[in-house]
Write a structure and sequence with these properties.
It catalyses: O-phospho-L-seryl-[protein] + H2O = L-seryl-[protein] + phosphate; O-phospho-L-threonyl-[protein] + H2O = L-threonyl-[protein] + phosphate. This is protein-serine/threonine phosphatase. InterPro entries: BRCT_dom (IPR001357), BRCT_dom_sf (IPR036420), Fcp1 (IPR039189). Keywords: Hydrolase, Metal-binding, Nucleus, Repressor, RNA-binding, Transcription, Transcription regulation. It contains seven helices and four strands. The protein is α/β, with parallel strands linked by helices and 210 residues long. Strands 2-1-3-4 form a four-stranded parallel sheet, with helices on both faces. Strand 3, helix 6 and strand 4 form a beta-alpha-beta unit. The radius of gyration is 19 Å and the shape is globular. The relative contact order is 0.13.
Length: 210
């Protein structure tokens, strides 16, 4: 279930990237805004919509408020009078890139069983997304790794994270950081199977793409 949901999400992002192929650096993805019940049902959400609850999203950290804050920050940086570069020579794409790279700055990620076995992890959208957010991605664990991203807690790398007290979290954490333009609380994105796998045989790491 987790992997199928992740695949659908990645396919959606891939479609957007294809449509905006020549202008990807200008593209700011935002969390889909579901107000009406029909929208929630269309995208598979079973919870009540905002309209059914007779309320709107929170003004402080809702999807619309989040993207508005990002746009305001980009605007402020771009029109900063203290910058010596002439306004006509400035490139908003570089400002967007700079702001985006601050999100996961200082994080070093390792992926475990997130990608299909017949792929190169560096070519995968989730890997590229993490790098665009300022994270360093690698294929093997070492003491400098801060996060292990996995879809199951029984893999060798996931168990390494638990033993070494590293963050172990689901790939949706990266997506949430990407939509929110802010590092999200790791504890909100637990990996399935963490408790029930204790004492059980470990899940073998994928030999090709792990």
């Amino acid at each position: 279930m987790w992997f199928s949901e992740l695949t659908v999400s990645q396919s959606f992002l891939m479609t957007l990237n294809m449509v905006w192929q020549k202008h990807k650096e200008n593209l700011i993805l935002m969390e889909r805004y579901h107000y009406f019940a029909a929208s929630c049902r269309q995208f598979g959400f079973s919870n009540q919509s905002l309209s059914e609850m007779m309320q709107d999203e929170r003004e402080s950290d809702g999807a619309l408020a989040t993207i508005l804050n990002v746009l305001k920050r980009i605007h402020t940086i771009f029109f900063d009078s203290g910058v010596e570069t002439a306004l006509s020579s400035r490139d908003v794409r570089q400002v967007i890139k700079r702001v985006r790279q601050e999100v996961l700055q200082g994080c070093k990620l390792v992926f475990s069983r997130v990608f299909p076995s017949d792929c190169h992890p560096q070519d995968q959208i989730m890997w590229k997304m993490a790098e665009q957010l300022g994270a360093v991605c690698c294929s093997e664990v070492d003491p400098s790794v801060t996060h292990v991203v996995a879809v199951h807690a029984g893999t060798e790398k996931a168990r390494w994270a638990a033993v070494n007290k590293k963050f172990l979290l689901h790939p949706r954490w990266i997506e949430a950081c990407n939509y929110r333009w802010h590092r999200q609380p790791e504890e909100d994105f637990p990996v399935p199977g963490l408790k029930e796998d204790k004492g059980k045989e470990k899940v073998t790491e994928d030999a090709t793409c792990n």
